[in-house]
């Protein structure tokens, strides 16, 4: 009887993990990039170097 409960618990855990994976994938978490809040500083001032601390 103990084996039955272990098997049922493992099946329930696998089902919950599968539902979590489906929910997270459907939500789009991690698959879409966040919106850009501002342009790069090198785009705003074209005469500035893109890597100010890099040595030649």
TrEMBL record:
Residues 28-56 are annotated as: Disordered. This is Uncharacterized protein. It comes from Cellulomonas humilata.
